[in-house]
User: Fold these one by one.
Assistant:
Number 1:
Amino acid sequence: MKILAFSDLHASREQAALLVEAAADADLVIGAGDFCNMRAGLDAALTLLSGIVAPLVTVPGNAESADELRAAAGEDITVLHGEGATVGGVTLFGLGYGVPETPFGAWSCDLSEAEAESMLARCDAADILITHSPPKGVADVTSGGHSVGSTAIAAAIERIQPQLAFCGHIHDSWGREGRIGATRVVNLGPFANWFEVDP
């Protein structure tokens, strides 16, 4: 299965156009959160992606809530937040929001490490784990050199050992990747990142 994955679109018309064009060759498209900015413009942001015809699976970022994303997505987009899905024989599990809590204030959709741990405990196995936030210690470094990823997500990857773990959230680490055990962890960014997965 040929998978295109991205994160942190932040309503960029230019990046959305490039993603839609690239997605013509995809069997599955995955969006790892932050489609809009500060809880505003979500409908318009998803409209920018309406040209994608492959199945689109998403998680909410900290810039939109799960309920807001589900309402804007309608029936054409699968939204995962503490739940899983199977597409073409590939099993996915998703968890959105900022983990741990961000310093951004009331607009940001965040989870504590304990809340994230509880929601990730629902996943026993997956080929791909999709989270908005990165795991602690991998692709999670800010411009100031601080590692701000999630210990709960790192522990879940270590336990589940999916083939791939996708994240975003930390813009300074877009394009960076690493491994937790056998799992390849990638901080995607708003670009056409390509992956091959055998169901």
Note: The radius of gyration is 15 Å.
Number 2:
Amino acid sequence: MTNILISGGGVAGSTLAFWLRRHGFTPTVVERAPSLRDGGYKIDIRGAALEVVDRMGLSDEVRRHGTDMRIARFVDARGRERATMSADLFGGREGDDVEIMRGDLARILHEATRDDVEHLFGDSITGMEETPEGVRVTFETAPPRTFDLVVGADGLHSTVRELAFGEESRFVHDLGHYISIFTVPNHLGLDRTEMMHPAPGRSAGMYSTRGAADAKALFLFSSPPMAYDRRDVAGQKKLLAEAFAGTGWEVPRLLEAMEDAPDFYLDSISQVRMDHWSSGRVVLLGDAAYGPSPASGQGTSLALVGAYVLAGSLAAARGDHRAAFAAYERDMRHFAEENQKLAEGNLKGMVLTSPGRIRFQMLMLRLMPHLPGRNSMIKRVTEPIRRAASAITLKDYRP
């Protein structure tokens, strides 16, 4: 059993392709985008995921592309500074944790696989049928092919999951919030600085990382589920503008720049919860199987670790995909659930519900450097993240 189709060329799919190739399998990656996806937001690599990156021999390259963020500043509607904190504390990072732009990590992983893995860009799966020979897959443009296994690493709105397991609504659980991010001119001249403006039920931010000529605009807001077409970018921009109508600080200027953004993104903050991640010769990976939502800060780490465990399980099972999938789920289930638990608690601090809560949070941030027991307070913030990020003991699957 050697030919494995991976749907999705992001972090999960590229990491899986890397390890499958080194275990002697023949992976093929199909990616809907016409080329490698650039852009995205800052992501963190922690705990067990750092060990995976190290075992890939990519630690130095990843660290070279770290964001090097220095400080987070909180401002009111008139742009007046109300509190500051270190960027690492703001992101819940400690020790060797790495923050990197998603696009940079995706490129590093792709470059590690592009010479020995087949990539089908600008295409996607339209159908799957199990046959005695394997899984017969049809594509939007490429001719049908048969693979021994199919892996859905195609994100929150996974096509593979819908084809193999059923409607998305059965597995994707809305956490009552939305996120949007896109590239904007760095008109504030930010240098490794993040600025946030909290308002009741919504939060807007802007940041620029090391060496970046531009900046990212970030919007978070609470909302009941919204009905919209994911292909209708203009409609999504209208929804975001309506959600932040009347918000102060730099929000009107950021929304104006949104119209020219080449990488606009908006989606619900949701989790994927499933009783099992495989069906026959099809298995899910990363956000498609156990997406913890951006609020957890752990989606990338789960993708890296999950890909390593799945590839290693397939190699250890020596062709028995049922045994491999069972081992993968057994080893990953607790890790995935522990990281998913972070999301709802984090959301409470990311989007505050009232002016009173905002004032209290700003007061606590201003007082923290002067309070007795400051280090203990910081540890209470970072400890749940550290514990979840290390909630798995990695087997040594390296060939």
Note: The domain at 3-70+99-172+271-344 is CATH 3.50.50.60 (FAD/NAD(P)-binding domain).
